[in-house]
Amino acid sequence: MENVLRPLIVLGGSVVLTLLVGWLVDLLLRRADSRHTETPLWGLLRRCRVPLEFVLCTALLRGTFRQTEIGSFEDHEAGIGRLLTLVFIGASAWLVVRIAAAVVDSSYTRYAASTRDPARVRRVRTQVTLIQRVVTAVVGVVAVAAMLLTFPAMRAVGASMLASAGVLGIVAGIAAQSTLGNLFAGLQIAFGDMVRIGDTVVVDGEWGTVEEITLTFLAVRTWDERRITMPVSYFTGKPFENWSRGGVQMTGTVFLHLDHSAPVREMREMLHDILRECPAWDGRDWSLAVTDTTPTTMLVRAVVTAKDADDIWTVRCAVREQLIAWLCDHHPYALPRVATSQAAPSLGEHPSPDDGNARTGRG
């Protein structure tokens, strides 16, 4: 009877104690979350219940599984102990990553709620995302190294590897030069405030919004829903346009090639009427002027403003469309014309036979 009760008490007691501690911790965090509504930290820490239970359960089993006195356990004591140790290390790394993510997310949420500047919020969001990725990578590397050191053979290998660490470091640095360059470029972007998640940028002639920034690459979502993935080193080594830096308000232009007889004064009044009825116009500024002329046309430029890149595109399209429609309906003579008739001969000149054949269509 003792051979049956002892394993049940040891194993079942470990599981029950783990569930009890997890429930108590969750209860305390729930009460703390209800009392401190100004911060979401306690609610976010509740996500750590599962990894915490894994850590507690594996720690209890690691220390008590010998007390079960089960024959199969005694025969494989070293293997079971190493397996529980590996699970304990992995669960501990999982718990640390969850706690770090909860703290970082809580800090970002509180900052975003108390800051009205969208540019600063996007900057902090970019930094928080990269910091969280760095912490996850570091914890993962340390956990894997700790797992490997549990094997006696790996300890001997580790001593020989440390002896040649200098040579290996040089070789690895040369081989991973591009990867390391992207890594440091990602950190430079995060803390140098060059580009942030949500910024509107123009890279390689493509206009889009920065959707994701990692330690090695950056993803830009274009206006037609395509994703352009670029190495972060591109943004530290080449010039690019960031329309969101220094404020998201923008000024746009609309160019029209018109005949010299176009009614510029009436066009200016019509432009103002169009903008007053356009919800995307922010009302900051507008103008219309003739900026250039050619022997056949003149170039009219309309200047409009909007609160961001999306709205400036909408305003430009609306102004271009409605101005052309208004000219077609009320002033069609103002549109560019192409002369197709032949010039009349001057006095004293007689048309050549070739001109006569051309006019009559005879060859």
Give a short summary of the structure.
This protein is 60% helix and 15% strand. It has 363 residues and is an alpha+beta fold.
Description:
The structure is a single chain. The chain is an alpha+beta fold and 363 residues long. The protein folds into three domains: 2-114, no CATH class; 180-242, SH3 type barrels; 250-334, Alpha-Beta Plaits, CATH 3.30.70.100. The chain is built from 13 helices and eight strands. The protein has a five-stranded antiparallel β-sheet. A three-stranded antiparallel β-sheet has the order 6-8-7, with helices on one face. Helix 5 (77-114) packs antiparallel against helix 6 (118-149) and helix 6 (118-149) runs antiparallel to helix 9 (177-192). The protein is elongated and about 120 Å long. The model is unreliable at 355-363 (pLDDT under 50).
List its salient traits:
3 domains, alpha+beta, three-stranded antiparallel sheet, elongated, SH3 type barrels, 60% helix, 13 helices, disordered C terminus, five-stranded antiparallel sheet, Alpha-Beta Plaits, 363 residues
